[in-house]
């Protein structure tokens, strides 16, 4: 195969694909840089793709769908499209603006014997999605996995979706979403910027809220089935239902996040206070963002069952199960996580062991767990005064 650049064959999940030779495109420190390769392939996103196929299989089974139609408008090497076809039995419509990427995607579809179910075109992502309704394509899932922000693709994706379907969205622009670059956050997501102590959950909730707002503009309601932050990206699975009434109901799930830099108080609210109810200090406020549950427990339980069935197929099955089990523990706790190190710094005390904190809160009748967002974080439904009281009493 002559594509004008060196390639190698790798195995990911249940597929075998041809990708640019990663040894050729490494930084001086030896780290492979996907953006330097002529066709984009990021092996670190294998876990993301694992979750995607588990989600797709679970969603199709629960909906009783005979045909799962997936759209992947930023195909790159085609690995995601091919995995959807091979591992989830999907019919996939994919595109990429780069000719080499289109060629490599077709090679990989043929290599895995799914050419008849993976259609790849050379096209701009938005142009491609805009043509889908005219082509009679009714996607069940549209998977937006860009290098950077997904914002430029959301409106077109929403309009291309069937009356009930899923947007699976990745964002790697976590610096703006977490508040590090406030101007970019305001430009891209139309959000009052700030940086809260629970910055990774902030990033997830801002993106989920933005999806809800864009969907409402096209009269779609949104149900967040799964949302998380791992490695260096945010990932959201949002089920959209057409209907103005559903859109209005979804907008009720928007609000603001608040954090007190003086005492560590944190909250989500439709209409947040400007001053901390505990110490009266000025609150840091960010929003609008999503203030509801970040996952659907029954759906996560079904995904866990599906992941067990796929154990020998997935690239990182242990990690998939570990994340889903942790999310299941966090689902019921809507209140944002605490950063234990920051809270202890405010209280001018040594940091106790995380497991001790979680166990003590449970002993006092509250729901509490560590969080997937941050190894230094914990989530609890305990009011702020109870968290502070527990920490001060634990110090003794």
Task: Describe this protein's structure.
Keywords: Metal-binding, Methyltransferase, RNA-binding, S-adenosyl-L-methionine, Transferase, tRNA processing, tRNA-binding, Zinc. This is tRNA (guanine(26)-N(2))-dimethyltransferase. Dimethylates a single guanine residue at position 26 of a number of tRNAs using S-adenosyl-L-methionine as donor of the methyl groups. Zn(2+) binds at residues 260, 263, 276, 279. Helix content is 40%, strand content 23%. The protein is an alpha/beta fold and 396 residues long. It folds into 2 domains: 41-290, Vaccinia Virus protein VP39 (Rossmann fold), CATH 3.40.50; 337-396, Phenylalanyl-tRNA Synthetase, Chain B, domain 1, CATH 3.30.56.70. Helix 3 (99-111) links the parallel strand 4 (91-96) and strand 5 (118-122). Helix 1 runs parallel beside helix 2. The longest helix has 19 residues, at 199-217. It starts with 6 loop residues before the first strand and ends with a helix.
